[in-house]
Amino acid sequence: MKYLAPGKINLGLWVIRKRDDTYHDIVTVFHKIPLYDEIIVEEASDFKISCDMCPESKENSVYRAYKLLRDKTGKDINLSVKIKKKIPSKAGLGGGSSDAATFIKAANEILSLGLSQEEMMDIGKNVGADVPFFILRENAAIGEGLGDKLLPFHSHLAGLLEIYRPSFGISTGWAYSMIDALSIYTPYKKAIKKALLIMDDLKRGKVSKVIENVFEKIVVEQHEELQEYKKDALMKGASLSLLSGSGSCMFSIYPKDNVLRIRYIEDI
Q: How far, in Å, CA of 211 to CA of 197, rounded?
């Protein structure tokens, strides 16, 4: 069976603090977007994975999800998985997390594992902090903690969503290390207040004026290519132009449509 794994953007992202386990607590607003990886999952004699533009080994998020599913259920997860990538890596669009989430849901359906949404999300968070969001039925959510504590909601965001992928990627580890080095932290109360305002606006189909991403202070300010894209998008009438996640992709929203549609621009 063929499944579509959507990407995501962050309509707001703040780092609260560095934890004792070296990870970071954040507040963010996740939003699914109509840019998809295609995943074909079929029953097989054993588990195997193939991917046109990603690792086919233990480094793949789907492989990690497979091991956790097998250990959690005590059942053989004998599935063939073929991944056709459309969502770029190191771009802040959540492609690997979405692939893992889509595989977990597909395996649950095809093999009749009987897992609830909560059980699938619990497995997913051990693959990656963003994975539980992609298991949700809703198209948006406020994320707290590592991003795995979720307040889901239905967004009615509409317009032309332009995704711009520059000629370079950004290491998430490097981006967070720069946040720590420069102490670019946001108090929790301030961040959650903004996230709730953004949620209320998205429910009404509006682009909130308080949307921001702290990683812009690091990534965009160091790359003229991104600065020029942002400036150009705003001059052309975008209501918002922002870095997604820790980068390197940026997105702009043009209020031209009654539904959310996407335009993907790649500079490679």
A: 9
